[in-house]
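hiii, so i know i said id send this last week but things got crazy w the move. better late than never?? heres the sequnce for the chain we talked about at the cafe, plus the structure i predicted for it. fair warning i was half asleep when i ran it
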Amino acid sequence: MESGLLYLVATPIGNLKDITLRAIEVLKSVDVIACEDTRHSMILLNNYDIHSKLISYHKFNETSSAEGIIKLLKEGKNVAVISDAGMPVISDPGNILVKRLIEEELNYTVIAGANAGLSALVLSGFDSSKFAFWGFLSENKKDRISTINEIKNFNGSCIIYSSKYNINDDLNDLKKSLDLNRRVCVCNEISKMYEKVLFFKLFDAKIIQPKGEFVIVLDKPDEIKENITDEQIIDLINERVSLGEKKLDVIKDLSKKFGKSRNYIYDLVKGN
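okay and structure toks below
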């Protein structure tokens, strides 16, 4: 018996119309749709008169459900996998399943569509020649610090997912390690009626009464701001003072320019 085909199908991230004609066609034609939350998915499926059989496939049963899906494929059934919003696998279940499909040499494909991270990067207007996606920051403190250090050392735009419960904590933790003058775009309710695209410098980034899901986009870091050493700061101060500028004015300017506190720079000067 010829095995079935598995489709990884992107679904809307907000507006229900953000779905491709091919996605609708596939969802109507498959034998089974595996979804994170059947109640949530029914809103989309009912809107497009899709009546394929539903099964549950989420992060808490991902491994066991993957085996069930493989069994269906081997029986010749075609299966679609969808997440609550956006592309399966990307910060959503699906990665374990794809690895198993490769191991079993079963056929699969992707049905392209909406993605919150890429949409936010486009909305931000930030440098898109080099960027990285970090997903949700870990709740584990050690892993969280490690990830933020990786973000700090990445020389490109950074995309981070966050929830209404964590958005301000995430921004505050980023402030502890990154250049405070780094530009930040926070996107919320992408493609919906009340879509918000907010711009900040990191030091004043804060969301009032957060609702829904968020995407944080950090602009590519200014290499001078990120790589400046204490010795270079001292040299800059001495050079500008020698040219007639007041020391306190220079400290104030460099504090703003390099995202370091005035007290920190003042202590550097006192020690030299």
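btw The two ends are 79 Å apart (CA to CA). thought thatd interest u
miss u guys!!
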